[in-house]
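hey
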């Protein structure tokens, strides 16, 4: 089965809405020949979604828009939180859920990740559900079992169509922002385990369809190696997504 490659930029807490709009204006001409073949998405902070969404609409860009987090309730007394329908109103296609930074600094668990995954689907968007092990877990040779549990709990209770549409980003915590990466083969091994786990939960067609991205110090120089692996369907890019030229080079590596 042909899975469409996806390259998504996670801008984390780096861009104002003005900077985000400028980044998209800079990026669009560099990748506009490519996004029929590769899906390209950017995930600004909440405050930047409207400005980026407006650029996408006015310039008729095929760029996809994602948020970095969401609450699972559709409304309520949850000061500071953002509901799924607030993101669909801004024409978000994707929502990153369960990034390791959210798990570490904001107390997210597999259970809250699962609620968010379901809420994102219920609102008509697609979750980019993150998983990945710490260095201690890797050193203890427990990566595969740790990641398998994250998938089994985080992606529980979906229907098979949702499971097939899900995007899972494998991001080893020790590779995020460090310049260190697993070998492409080692990353692919974990991505294959992720796919097999989805297969065990939802059947072979879902396993064949689910897109598994690699994230963690993806750069223009190493992207092609990761994207050539059979179970890696693209990348979730942090630092290198903040510059139009380096992000565009990563998109080209996925062609
Ligand atoms: P870096 O690409 O900066 O390592 O960040 C990866 C990441 O966390 C993307 O979600």
């Amino acid at each position: 089965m042909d899975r469409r490659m996806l390259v998504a930029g996670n801008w984390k807490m780096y861009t104002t809405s003005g900077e985000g709009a400028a980044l998209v204006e800079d990026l669009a001409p560099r990748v506009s020949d490519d996004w029929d073949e590769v899906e390209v998405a950017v995930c600004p902070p909440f405050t930047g979604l409207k400005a980026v969404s407006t650029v996408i609409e006015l310039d008729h860009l095929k760029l996809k828009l994602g948020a970095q987090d969401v609450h699972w309730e559709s409304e309520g007394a949850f000061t500071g939180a953002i509901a799924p329908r607030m993101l669909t109103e801004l024409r978000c296609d994707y929502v990153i859920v369960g990034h390791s930074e959210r798990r570490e600094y904001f107390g997210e668990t597999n259970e809250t990740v699962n609620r968010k995954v379901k809420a994102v689907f219920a609102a008509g968007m697609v979750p980019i559900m993150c998983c990945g092990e710490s260095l201690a877990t890797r050193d203890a040779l427990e990566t595969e079992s740790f990641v398998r549990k994250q998938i089994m709990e985080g992606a529980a209770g979906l229907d098979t169509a949702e499971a097939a549409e899900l995007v899972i980003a494998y991001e080893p915590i020790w590779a995020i922002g460090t310049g260190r990466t697993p070998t492409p083969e080692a990353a692919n091994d974990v991505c294959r385990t992720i796919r097999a786990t989805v297969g065990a939960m939802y059947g072979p067609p879902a396993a064949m369809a689910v897109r598994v991205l690699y994230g963690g110090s993806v750069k223009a120089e190493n992207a092609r190696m990761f994207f050539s692996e059979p179970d890696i369907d693209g990348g979730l890019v942090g630092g290198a997504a903040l510059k139009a030229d380096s992000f565009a080079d990563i998109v080209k590596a996925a062609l």
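The pocket of 1,3-dihydroxyacetonephosphate is lined by residues 10, 99, 171, 176-177, 215-218, 236-240 (CB under 6 Å). The CA atoms of residues 27 and 244 lie 5 Å apart.
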